User: Fold MbnP family protein from Winogradskyella pulchriflava.
Amino acid sequence: MKLNIQKHNRIIVGNVVMLFIVTILNFTSCSEDNDDNIEPNATVTFKFTHNWDGQSVTNADFNIIQFINENGETLSIERLRYLISDITLTTTNNEIIELDNYNLVDVTNSDGLSFTLNSQIPTGSYTNVSFTFGFDNEDNAENYLDLNTASFNVPEMMGGGYHYMQFDGKYLDANSNEQSFNYHAIRAVDNPGMNPTFPQDTFFTVNLGALTIANDVEIEVKANLAEWFKNPNSWDLNVLNQMLMPNSAAQIMMYDNGQTVFTLGEVTQ
Assistant:
């Protein structure tokens, strides 16, 4: 009887050991499979810096007539804020990651100079990172309470929606007298009034180029403010200084000049 009990106990112990081993193997296998399927993600922050042909510009440099544009006028910056939206990343497999977001970069108040995406991004190599300057037409038709509060709206008689940029300052005219300029970018509009028309889209895509994201990353976007006044159109502030919003030809010139303003700066990770 005693021998039978010992045998029975050995059978029970053996079964328990086998069950434990099988459970551990299954758990390990599942864990390895899950780890293999997890792609590391990274937090992406965009940092906007500004310069005038290489000379650093912050709000500490505002309200001083010191910058010389391509046409030879000396000018100051009193207010600068602009809108970026729809940050997009293109993978090496040509997959598109488009983030429906926007950021108002307010240099005057040092607000929005750093912008962290509200979604993490898979690590890896990307053939291009881009964003939209301003809003595309679909986004421009939406209602944004924060932009309304910031008085970034465009009057309905000029098509409504929002500014793409407000760049204000003073310049010295041919007689060395201070004059004001308002370099405001919006959707180009003709026939301001009850039935405005739109000759050309003036938002544009900024392509920063390829980069690899290995960890949480800060991407510097450099804005050369001098480019707004020189390439390809040498901007004459004596002629084009105010009332530019209802001037569709001026808006298209801004669109042309804006193509070379933004470039990729330092990538820190």
Remarks:
- The chain has four helices and 15 strands.
- Confidence is low (pLDDT under 50) at residues 1-14, 19-25, 27-35.
- Residues 1-38 form one domain.
- The first helix runs from residue 2 to 37.
